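Quick one, probably user error.
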C-alpha cells in the first residue's frame, strides 16, 4: 500500500515510463503532423481508428463503473464514460470542425485491435497471473478489476495530452494555417486535461487498498498500455518522405553510420576517474602491509584518500579558472569555429598538466587489472544508453561502426563495461594504464588528453570513409572536450547538463537547438523539395534530455518486437495476441 501514497500511483508510473512516450513523439506520424505536412489520407486513417478506441473506452468505463464499490467513484466513472460517448456521437461534426471528413468505410488496424483487445480483456478481469476467473464475485475483486481497467486507460490519455502539448509549444499561436492545429488544440484543451486527471485520480483512489503484488500488476498493465499505444502510432501508414528514423532515411544497402560517443557522464552516471580512485583506495586496505622491495609500493588507504581529495579539489578549482580565462575574450556575434579551436588549446594544456599531476601523485599505482574489470561490471549507465547501443549493433538498416572517444585513464575499464552488455564490437579510444604483471605502475599512456586530440582521433577514423558519400557521422557528447567533434560531425547531439559546454558554445556562436523541433523544421523543408542532407560545421548542435530521444531518432521503435515476445507469455487475453507485427 506504500507505493500508492507516494504522490499517487498514476504519477509514479508516468514518471517511471515517460521516456517511452518519446518513441511515440519521434514517429514519422507525429513529426509530420507537427510540421503540418502530414498527408491528409494518413491523418484521416488515424482519426478513423478513433471510432474503435472510443467504443472500447466507453465499454471499459462501463465495466469499471459496475466494479466500483463507492457511489462517488461510480458517478465519476459514469461522467468519464458519458464524455467518451458524447465524443463518439459528435465525432463526425468534430472532424468536420477540424476541416476533414470521416471515411464511409473504416478498416481496423492490427495495432488498433491489439490496443482495444488488451483494454477490454483487462476490464473483463482477464489478467494473466490473477485468480479472477469467470464471474467476479466479491466487492474487493471488483474494485481491483476497476483499478486494473483504469491503469490500462490512464497512460493512453496522458500520452495524447503530453505529445499534443509538446507539439503545440512549437506552433505560432497567431498562425492559423497549420493543417492540424485544431486537433492539437483539442488534446491540449482544459476539458481533455480534466478527463485525463480525473482518470488518474480515480486510479490512485482505487489502488489505495491493493497489495504490493497487485500494485505490481498495475505497473505491468500501465507499461504495456504505453507500449501498445506507441506501437499504434509507429504503425500509422505514413507514405511520404520523412526525417525519422535516421536509419530508415538513408539507403539501407549503401548507407554507413559512424557513431562516436564520449564515455564519462555521457554513457555513465559517474566520472571514471573517481571510480578508479575509489578502487585504489579500497584495494589498498586489502593489500599486504609488509610490502617488499620487489613489489610496487603503494600509499596507505588514508594517504590515498587525502591525496585524491586534494587532486580532485584542485582540478575543479583550476578547471573553472581555465573556463573563465577562455570566456574573458570578447564573445562573437556569429559562429566562429577557428576561434573556438584556438581557445580550446588552453583547455588542452590544462588537461595535460592535470594528468601529469595524477601520475606524479602515485594514486593509480598498484591497481589489479582483474579488479578493474570487476569494477566495470558495477558501473551505472545512463538510462537507455546500453539498450540503444545493443539495438544499434543489431540493426540491419545500417552498416554501423561505434567508436568511444574518452579522456578516461583506463581503456580496459571502458572495454570491460561494454563487454558485459554484448557490445564487444565497440572500438575504444582512450588513455591506458601501464601494467607490470597485471598490476598498474601508476603511469598512463597518454593518447587522448584534450579536445584537439579527440578531434585528431575522430578525423583519423573517418579517413577510411573520406570518399563515401553515403557515410553519416553522429557524435554524442556532453562536455567542453567534445565540442570540436560535435561540430565536425554531420549530426552533433548534446546530452547532459554541462554549463561549461553551453557557455563556451554560446561564447563562440554555437546554436543549441532541441532535436525534436529541428526535425519538425526539417520535415517542413522536405515539403518544399529541399534536401534533408545533414551538414557538418554549421554551428548548430542538437540537444536531448535522454538516451530515449537518441534511440527514437536514430533507430525508431525497433525493440517493440522483443518486448511483445516477452509480454505475450505474461498477458494472454485473445488468440491473436501472439501474432505480433512491427512496422
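Nope, works fine. Designed sequence:
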Amino acid at each position: 500500500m506504500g507505493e500508492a501514497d507516494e504522490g499517487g500511483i498514476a504519477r509514479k508510473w508516468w514518471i517511471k515510463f515517460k521516456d517511452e512516450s518519446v518513441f511515440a513523439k519521434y514517429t514519422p506520424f507525429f513529426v509530420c503532423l507537427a510540421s503540418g505536412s502530414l498527408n491528409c489520407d494518413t491523418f484521416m486513417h488515424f482519426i478513423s481508428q478513433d471510432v474503435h478506441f472510443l467504443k472500447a473506452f466507453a465499454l471499459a468505463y462501463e465495466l469499471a463503473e459496475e466494479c466500483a464499490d463507492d457511489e462517488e467513484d461510480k458517478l465519476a466513472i459514469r461522467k468519464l464514460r458519458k464524455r467518451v460517448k458524447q465524443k463518439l456521437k459528435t465525432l463526425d461534426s468534430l472532424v468536420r470542425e477540424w476541416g476533414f471528413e470521416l471515411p464511409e468505410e473504416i478498416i481496423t488496424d492490427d495495432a488498433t485491435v491489439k490496443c482495444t483487445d488488451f483494454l477490454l480483456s483487462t476490464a473483463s478481469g482477464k489478467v494473466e497471473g490473477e485468480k479472477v476467473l469467470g464471474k467476479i464475485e466479491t466487492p474487493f475483486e471488483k474494485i481491483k478489476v476497476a483499478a486494473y481497467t483504469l491503469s490500462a486507460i490512464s497512460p493512453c490519455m496522458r500520452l495524447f495530452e503530453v505529445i499534443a502539448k509538446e507539439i503545440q509549444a512549437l506552433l505560432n499561436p497567431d498562425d492559423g494555417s497549420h493543417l492540424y492545429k485544431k486537433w492539437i488544440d483539442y488534446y491540449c484543451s482544459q476539458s481533455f486535461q480534466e478527463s485525463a486527471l480525473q482518470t488518474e485520480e480515480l486510479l490512485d483512489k482505487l489502488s489505495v487498498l491493493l497489495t504490493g503484488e497487485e500494485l505490481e500488476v498495475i505497473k505491468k498493465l500501465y507499461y504495456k498500455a504505453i507500449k501498445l499505444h506507441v506501437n499504434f502510432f509507429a504503425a500509422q501508414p505514413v507514405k511520404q518522405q520523412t526525417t525519422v528514423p535516421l536509419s530508415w532515411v538513408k539507403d539501407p544497402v549503401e548507407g554507413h553510420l559512424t557513431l562516436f560517443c564520449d564515455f564519462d557522464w555521457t554513457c555513465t552516471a559517474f566520472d571514471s576517474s573517481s571510480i578508479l580512485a575509489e578502487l585504489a583506495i579500497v584495494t589498498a586496505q586489502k593489500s599486504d602491509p609488509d610490502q617488499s622491495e620487489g613489489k610496487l609500493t603503494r600509499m596507505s588507504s588514508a594517504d590515498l584518500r587525502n591525496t585524491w581529495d586534494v587532486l580532485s579539489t584542485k582540478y575543479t578549482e583550476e578547471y573553472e579558472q581555465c573556463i573563465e580565462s577562455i570566456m574573458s575574450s570578447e564573445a562573437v556575434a556569429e559562429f566562429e569555429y577557428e576561434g573556438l579551436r584556438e581557445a580550446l588549446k588552453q583547455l588542452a594544456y590544462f588537461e595535460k598538466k592535470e594528468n601529469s599531476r595524477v601520475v606524479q601523485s602515485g594514486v593509480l599505482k598498484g591497481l589489479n587489472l582483474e579488479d578493474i574489470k570487476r569494477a566495470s561490471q558495477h558501473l551505472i549507465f545512463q538510462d537507455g544508453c546500453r539498450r540503444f547501443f545493443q539495438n544499434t549493433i543489431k540493426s540491419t538498416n545500417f552498416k554501423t561502426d561505434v567508436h568511444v572517444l574518452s579522456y578516461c585513464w583506463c581503456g580496459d575499464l571502458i572495454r570491460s563495461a561494454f563487454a558485459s552488455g554484448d557490445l564487444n564490437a565497440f572500438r575504444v579510444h582512450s588513455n591506458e594504464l601501464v601494467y607490470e604483471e597485471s598490476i598498474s605502475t601508476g603511469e598512463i599512456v597518454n593518447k587522448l588528453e584534450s579536445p584537439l586530440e579527440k578531434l585528431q582521433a575522430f578525423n583519423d577514423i573517418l579517413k577510411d570513409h573520406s570518399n563515401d558519400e553515403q557515410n553519416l557521422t553522429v557524435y554524442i557528447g556532453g562536455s567542453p572536450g567534445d565540442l570540436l567533434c560535435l561540430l565536425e560531425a554531420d549530426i552533433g547531439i548534446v546530452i547532459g547538463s554541462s554549463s561549461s559546454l553551453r557557455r563556451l558554445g554560446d561564447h563562440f556562436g554555437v546554436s543549441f537547438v532541441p532535436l525534436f523541433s529541428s526535425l519538425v523544421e526539417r520535415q517542413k523543408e522536405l515539403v518544399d523539395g529541399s534536401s534533408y542532407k545533414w551538414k557538418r560545421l554549421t554551428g548548430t548542435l542538437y540537444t536531448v534530455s535522454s538516451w530515449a530521444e537518441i534511440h527514437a531518432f536514430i533507430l525508431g521503435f525497433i525493440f517493440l518486437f522483443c518486448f511483445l515476445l516477452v509480454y505475450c507469455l505474461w498477458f494472454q487475453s485473445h488468440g491473436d495476441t501472439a501474432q505480433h507485427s512491427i512496422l
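The first helix runs from residue 9 to 17.
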